[in-house]
Design brief:
The chain has 343 residues and is of the alpha+beta class. Helices cover 22% and strands 29% of the residues. The strands form four sheets. Strands 9, 10, 11, 12, 15, 16, 17, 18, 19 and 20 form a ten-stranded mixed sheet that branches. Strands 6-1-5-2-8 form a five-stranded antiparallel sheet, with no helix packed on it. α1 crosses α2. It is globular, with a radius of gyration of 22 Å. The mean pLDDT is 94.
Length: 343
């Protein structure tokens, strides 16, 4: 049986721990997450460790923790001291209250069937409630009832209600503390020049065009076109390890990528690349990709982050939830969705 804690219960960051947290948040349990590693009782705990403080929860805390740790097969360490020998302190700024996410997912037009992948993740994997709204109805929704909005893959346009006026509206919502998460086509929309929610440039492929000069001699010029579609391959990527979206990750990761959404490198004023495709040499891990596409992909973001006011915009150039095939990538999305409101 689990020893009863007098100060707190510590839950190291694993996929099971996040599922356990999703369940406990629905019981009105108050939980925290450590943005930095810390050492307590001679043991070091990774960033992303969850903390349930005894003083902030009810008398049934121990029984609830004990029951759910067995259900989710999660390690829980009781502590009878708050003395931290090194790292983030329990009452310090690097330990954040996990504010329960109030999630809105856009479904139907302009999204495609891919919205079901994210819906499945919340319903069947995390068991966490969401509100699903048709894209055509979004303009009538009070966004202030939510702190997390997810735009799945799709073809977003002003004709579907996703023009500059909506971008201004959601930009203000983000500045007030909201977390916007965009996937694939939605990321392309967010990064487009007229929308500008993300400040990365959408990369194009340069192709030669033949053009005659005034003296009838052919002069070779180039034009920019949409990159060729990547049918699906694994690529080496680098992980920025000082951000809450990358809780639980090591410095390097193989990511699956398909499609043709490629963002330019992130400048210091545009935000930060949280997961970036590796250098051109040795970029491909498994599968096939056109050399020209790899030239474009090298050292560009797979996940990009931009802060605005008190909120966050997190863009994925592909859908990590696609058919629930890549749990190692889904953790990035889960961190974004479940911890955005906490930060």
């Amino acid at each position: 049986a689990l020893e009863k804690a007098t100060v707190a219960y510590l839950i190291p960051p694993t996929d099971g721990a996040v599922k356990m947290m999703s369940h406990l948040l629905q019981t009105d349990m108050r939980m925290h997450v450590a943005d930095e590693s810390f050492t307590i009782g001679g043991r070091e705990y990774e960033r992303g460790t969850l903390i349930a403080k005894v003083s902030e929860n009810g008398e049934n805390l121990h029984d609830l923790i004990d029951r759910t740790r067995a259900e989710f097969q999660v390690e829980v360490v009781p502590t009878n001291t708050a003395y931290v020998q090194k790292g983030a302190h329990m009452g310090g700024p690097k330990v954040k209250w996990v504010k329960p996410p109030k999630v809105l997912i856009v479904v139907n037009r302009p999204t495609n069937y891919a919205s079901g992948h994210t819906w499945y993740l919340f319903d069947e994997v995390l068991g966490y409630p969401t509100t699903r709204v048709k894209g055509s109805d979004l303009r009538r929704v009070d966004l202030n009832k939510f702190n997390t909005i997810i735009l799945p893959d799709g073809r977003y346009s002003s004709g579907d209600g996703f023009g500059e006026s909506f971008a201004d509206r959601i930009s203000e919502w983000v500045a007030d503390g909201g977390t916007l998460i965009t996937l694939r086509g939605a990321t392309s929309w967010a990064a487009s020049e007229d929308i500008g929610l993300l400040k990365n440039k959408l990369l194009k492929r340069k192709v030669p065009i033949a053009r005659k000069s005034t003296d009838d001699e052919k002069e070779e010029k180039t034009e920019e076109v949409t990159p060729d579609n990547v049918p699906g391959a694994f690529f080496h990527a680098d992980v920025f390890q000082k951000h809450w979206v990358t809780f639980g990750y090591r410095p390097h990761l193989d990511v699956f990528y398909s499609g043709r959404v490629i963002l330019g490198p992130t400048s210091e004023t545009a935000g930060r690349s949280l997961v970036s495709f590796g250098k051109r040499e040795g970029l491909l891990s498994s599968g096939f990709c056109w050399p020209e596409s790899m030239d474009l992909l090298a050292e560009t973001p797979y996940v990009v982050y931009r802060s605005r006011g008190s909120g966050h915009i997190i863009g994925f150039v592909d859908d990590p939830n696609f058919r629930a095939m890549y749990p190692s990538l889904q953790r990035l999305f889960i961190n974004a969705a479940m911890f955005g409101a906490a930060h």
